[in-house]
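RETRY 2/3 - previous attempt timed out on the joint model. Re-submitting the same 1085-residue input unchanged.
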Amino acid sequence: MAKEYETVIGLEVHVELATKTKIFCGCSTAFGGAPNTHTCPVCTGMPGSLPVLNRQVVEYAVAVGLATNCSITQHCKFDRKNYFYPDNPQNYQISQLYLPICRNGYVEIETPEDDGLKRKRIGIHEIHMEEDAGKLIHDDWEGSSLVDYNRSGVPLIEIVSEPDMRNADEVIAYLEKLRTTIQYLGASDCKLQEGSMRADVNISVREMGAAEFGTRTEMKNLNSFHAIMHAIEGERARQIDLIESGEKVVQETRRWDDQKGMSYAMRSKEDAQDYRYFPDPDLVPVYISDEWIARVRANQPELREAKMKRYRESFGIPDYDIRIITDSKHMADLFEETVALGAQPKKVSNWLMVETLRILKEREMDAQDIGFSPKHLAALIALVDQKAITTTVAKEVFEVMFAEDVDPVAYVEEKGLKTVNDESELRRTVEQVIADNPQSVADYRNGKEKAIGFLVGQTMKAMKGKADPTGVNKLLKELL
Amino acid sequence: MRRRKRTVCLWCRRPLSDNGKRGKSMSILDYTAVELSDQIRRGEIKVVDAVEAVFAQIDGREKELNCYVTLQKERALEQAKIVQAKIDAGELSGPLAGVPFAIKDNMCTKGTRTTCSSKILENFVPAYSATAVEKLEAAGAVVIGKTNMDEFAMGSTTETSYYGVTKNPHNAMHVPGGSSGGSAAAVAAGECFAALGSDTGGSIRQPASHCGVVGMKPTYGTVSRYGLIAYGSSLDQIGPLAKDVRDCAAILEVISGRDEKDSTSMSRENGQGTDFISALQEDIQGMRIGIPRDYFGAGLDTEVRDAVLAAAEVLRAKGAVVEEFDLSLVQYAIPTYYTIAAAEASSNLERFDGIKYGYRTAEADNLHAMYKKTRSEGFGAEVKRRIMLGSFVLSSGYYDAYYLKALRVKALIRRAFDAAFAKYDVILGPVAPTTAPKLGESLADPLKMYLGDIYTISANLAGLPGISVPCGTDAAGLPIGVQLLGDCFQEKKILRVAYTYEQAVKRG
Amino acid sequence: MANVIDDETIEYVGILAKLELSDEEKDQAKQDMAKMLDYIDQLNELDTTGVEPMSHIFQVENVFREDEVTNGDMREAVLANAPEEKDGMFVVPQTFE
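RETRY 2/3 succeeded.
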């Protein structure tokens, strides 16, 4: 009889903070500069250079800690983690081991179950501040690697969970939860693909019901939800195979190759994994006073749960819409700002849920990348409300607005898209349609009510969509 | 006012060995830094002449002494013209304007090679200057070169330099002390008017003592460490080596101050300000001076002991209350220091890996071989010894027993000084157990060499300011220094005592 | 000597410190380190129970920079001392992962 196994998963999630500058120097954190153009003596480890802490990093770390129910370590320090690697210019990383800034928190996740949603609490062991490494580019032709330190010193927080997850669904739900929470705080954009959110996954398996954890391995290089799910499946299977064939799981770091669907041990003789942590003598301790914590708490924006509750109470839109809209802080902001400009919530929600989601999906874009402004969406809705344009025209205008954030009022004016309310022009067109389609006219007069639909369509076509179909219908009936 | 030609050592009244090459520049070299700038301001001496005088002296003595790793005569002469113009225009009027300076080669100097006396930084030319150097230059000092030192400041003799040994100007058979041996020897030999050194465990005070000049380590955090290539970051401080106490105070006043680039630099005010020149008063009436009995036990040379106690008597005669006391924990300072310094050094020196700057091995087929070869070929024996020790005491399983233990003892040592400074304004003692050892005598037994730091090391562990002032010579004519230690931020007290002593001795 | 440093330890510390010692140097290093550790072991004579490790001498806290970009493009200066450079980057022997 086959044994049943339980997977035990803990995550180490690295999040790049949304500061303007690096953690210990005044270099820009902007993406996309030519190699080494965002560097200085400090973030390239030049002799004699010294780090000075960016205040905003502490602010963000405290904000994330409070939002994830952590206790804040009011006296915290930085430590050096010593290891040689070319992406690490000092050959030590400034991090926190002994006194991380946040400890003992949790987040609540929901995963789908047979009868609705299952809620579960995932413990957060600690959150610490540290610096990111540079980037290595491999030059296979020359047999060498090239080092770019633009990312070196970009501030990170590492969120270390307890081993509380049991399957990939929970892992994804946990990551989603962290992502929305941190995005809501404005502490990071949390883009997995671009590396501003990265997860290392610690996995072990044990026989169902066993009290002790099995030996865990750490999987690195997971840069999509897809890769995370596959790596968990792959590693679970690998460990079960080892156990069933009587071998032992070795505690090690493994690199996931998503294309091959396999992992590889990363360890070599030259990596002793003995980091010789000690307090960094170049940095002074950080003291986070009660007042400071209170201030961060007071400035905390409304988080997703609270927002969802408020939407339910005040906007009268379906729960499904609320979930989608609040999934992204950016979309929620867009929604609220548009409503604040006088648009009806249900109509705003419709534009977001239908047209916006459609275009995002088509173009493989993220909700965070939506570029049109609330005032333009409000103006577009107003144009429809005033019957100044038809829904058909509105959708065309929206496409342009989505791409270029054009002002719909000006655009409609410029392109002559306004609904024709000029009675004489409409009457002339309708008379022409009646004259051109004697068969349909005859059908209608003979009692075929449906024939009028064709005539409306022909009129709309002749008017290039700029007529109000109800008005056309009315006029046709009158003239027939 | 022209001063009489000085042909004897100010302190020991012995003829200075000059190889007969001092020539007509002699009179300029006789001035202290502050006196020189005064002469320059009054138009008596041109900055260029002062620079030329120093280079003439260098031409005569450098071959024998090897005080410098890098000299920059052309740049210095150019700088001299610029500074002269500023002085003439009244833009520069401070006490260092126009003074030729030497900088220890572990301080970055923009555009000038900075080696730490190591092969691994043989061709390193920084794109920035240390804050202390920037401040000196802004005050009109003219940097003439970079002085030799023990490699990465690890040593007490300036014999571990990749660029050869520096010799003691008082007797070239002896070491100048270290690690700021090049700076001390250059000042003593007239190869500059003053110099900057760094002090991690006595590296300013001990060579100052061995070379018969004044050297001062300020309170930790007084001078920015930005641009100082780190050895033991929690212990390192930059300070002056100079001809007299007034020069020392003037230099320290210029280079100190809070620097936003160094998180550990302190802003000082409320009676603990950095207006050090104001402390130069010949008045120590009623000041309490404590002499730790523990500093006068076995190992202390009797000639050194007598000279130091004689200095204490001079101070007593000037009205100070001098008494002996038990400091305690003295023998634990050295093991504490070597644990902490080696641990920090092992991490600080990781950045020298052949990738971003400095020496890189000629051939290595993979990354780890490149690291190992580069570092093994680039570092000298003493540096490797301390990196190995430091890596070990931080390694898994030993951190608590060695590193944390040392940090706990450091706290106890700090408490012992707190207790002492509750009773005394200043602590007086020797700088080193002996006068300068002979060349080659020290390196054979590293542990014995480390023991020589016993009187200076605790000031670094406790963050205290300390000054070494010449107080005589031994029978062989080698200088002896007396050390004055103050509580943190009490530089003015030790400067006042040092100045009073110096003036008393000068008058004879 | 109370402390004995074996070959394995020296090898291990060499890996941590990225130093490759010759056999002669290794022997010397074993002796030096054992001697230093014996000496450091003196600290065990002191009872430090309840004494907080003192990493910083002064109780200075919260030294910060504000989050403002102060550095421009310094690439040329940063690369000026590179032993080997290509396309604005530092060249290292291939790192395998």
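The first strand of chain A starts at residue 5 and ends at 16. Closing ticket.
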